Fold this sequence. Notes:
Chain A is an all-beta fold. Chain A has no helices and twelve strands. In chain A, the strands form three sheets. In chain A, strands 2, 5, 6, 10, 11 and 12 form a six-stranded mixed beta sheet that branches. A four-stranded antiparallel beta sheet of chain A has the order 3-9-8-7, with no helix packed on it. In chain A, strands 1-4 form a two-stranded antiparallel ribbon. In chain A, a hairpin with a 5-residue loop joins strand 5 (32-38) and strand 6. The termini of chain A are far apart. The relative contact order of chain A is 0.33. The mean pLDDT of chain A is 92. Chain B has 116 residues and is mainly β. Chain B is 0% helix and 52% strand. Chain B has strands at residues 4-7, 10-13, 19-25, 32-38, 44-51, 57-58, 67-73, 76-81, 90-97, 106-107, 111-115. The mean pLDDT of chain B is 91. Classes of the chains: A mainly beta (110), B mainly beta (116). The A-B interface holds A 32, 34, 36, 41-46, 49, 51, 90, 94, 97-103 and B 4, 6, 34, 42-46, 49, 91, 93, 95, 101-110, 112.
Amino acid sequence: AQSVTQLGSHVSVSEGALVLLRCNYSSSVPPYLFWYVQYPNQGLQLLLKYTSAATLVKGINGFEAEFKKSETSFHLTKPSAHMSDAAEYFCAAYGNKLVFGAGTILRVKS
Amino acid sequence: GAVVSQHPSRVICKSGTSVKIECRSLDFQATTMFWYRQFPKQSLMLMATSNEGSKATYEQGVEKDKFLINHASLTLSTLTVTSAHPEDSSFYICSANPGLAYNEQFFGPGTRLTVL
């Protein structure tokens, strides 16, 4: 069965620092991969998606993610964190259904 | 574009009552909608896949008689929690696929259900 692992349930960075949220997937066939952001009591907003085109995917709000097949990873990065980035982030993979990781709460310190 | 709404956003009900949650795609038609459940501090778990004009497909462990899903039109799916109990309290989120590849789904804002 397909699974998604997000390392670190909580990540804390200073404003202006690099954001790195880790995601690994388990699949014999690289699935389609997504990163979503969720603000408190809201639904999910798509940040970016990997669909087997470019391995470096750029998304909204300055986020990007790199697909590395050899590492089965799809880590999310942003060069400079902003206070408004504080939220929960979910990595998800689609094989025959969308499977989510456990989520990572990002805290941005001023 | 690709906006999905849910109604209500919050509902509090007494144990034993039924609650209906609506999910609408506002600016596109969705042959497939999905219902997820999210417990506090946990991830989203797919409950069922709703196809317009046909019966929903439920994930293993989800009681189809308790969570009734109706996808009567290309823009509306409803989830009815029947005889709700406190353990059904959760955040329910729907999503819809406007026919895009890669099963790209657009998510609604969620419905917070509290059963007393």
